[in-house]
Amino acid sequence: MDFLFNINVDFYIAAYLIGGIPFGLLLAKKFAGVDVKSAGSGSIGATNVLRVVKETNPALAKKLGIATLVLDALKGVAVLSAAYFMGLDESVLWAVAVLAVLGHCFSPYLGFEGGKGIATGMGVMMFMLPVETTIALIVWLVMAKTVRISSVSSLTGVLALLISSFIIHPNMAHAPVVFIVAILFYKHIPNIIRVIKGEEKRVI
C-alpha cells in the first residue's frame, strides 16, 4: 500500500474520482427534479441537461446547462492546477489530464458509464495546450452557429485541436492528446452513426 503515499498516484486517483463527479446529473435532479440518464440522449453532459430540462422549465434549462458545462470543465482543471503548483512533472500533468477525462466518461459513481467528455476534455486541454484549444473553440463556435448539430460541432473542434497541436508543437509527445481525442470520438460513436443516417438532432 506504500504506493498510495506517492504524490503522483494520489493525484492520479484524485483526477479520476473528481473527474467522475456527474455534475449534470446532480444539478438536474436537485434543481429540476429530472433524471437526465433516463431522458434525451441519456448523457450527463450540458447538452442533454439543456435538452431535458428545457421540456419542463426553459428558463432553468439554460442556467443548468451553463453550470454543468463550467463545472465539468473545471473539475479537471482543478486537479491539474493543484498538481502544477506542487511542481509535478509535465508527464504527470498529462496523466492527470487523461484520467480526469476518463473519470468523466467512465464514472466510478455511475457503474463506469458517463458523459461524452467534451467539456472536461476542453478544460484540461485549455490548461495544457491553450493556443490549440482556443483554435478548437473558435472552430466549434463557427460550426455551432452554422451546422447547429452539437456532436458535429464538438468533434470538429476536437479534430482542429489535434491537428493544430501537431503543427504548433511538432516535437512534443502527442500520445496523451491522441488518447483523449480517441476517447471523445469513442463516446460519440452513437452520435456519429446518427449523423451518417441523418437522424442527429439540431440544437434549436
UniProtKB/TrEMBL annotation:
GO terms classed as biological process: phospholipid biosynthetic process
Recorded topology in the membrane: Multi-pass membrane protein
Main localization (coarse): membrane
TM ranges: 12-28, 64-86, 92-112, 124-143, 155-186
Gene behind this protein: plsY
Family from the record: Belongs to the PlsY family.
Assembly: Probably interacts with PlsX.
Pathway field: Lipid metabolism; phospholipid metabolism
UniProt catalytic activity: an acyl phosphate + sn-glycerol 3-phosphate = a 1-acyl-sn-glycero-3-phosphate + phosphate
SMART domains recorded: G3P_acyltransf (SM01207)
Protein name: Glycerol-3-phosphate acyltransferase
Protein task: Catalyzes the transfer of an acyl group from acyl-phosphate (acyl-PO(4)) to glycerol-3-phosphate (G3P) to form lysophosphatidic acid (LPA). This enzyme utilizes acyl-phosphate as fatty acyl donor, but not acyl-CoA or acyl-ACP.
Keywords: Acyltransferase, Cell inner membrane, Cell membrane, Lipid biosynthesis, Lipid metabolism, Membrane, Phospholipid biosynthesis, Phospholipid metabolism, Transferase, Transmembrane, Transmembrane helix
Subcellular compartments: Cell inner membrane
Alphabetized InterPro entries for the sequence: G3P_acylTferase_PlsY
EC number: 2.3.1.275
Lineage: Bacteria, Pseudomonadati, Campylobacterota, Epsilonproteobacteria, Campylobacterales
GO terms for MF: acyl-phosphate glycerol-3-phosphate acyltransferase activity
GO CC annotations, alphabetized: plasma membrane
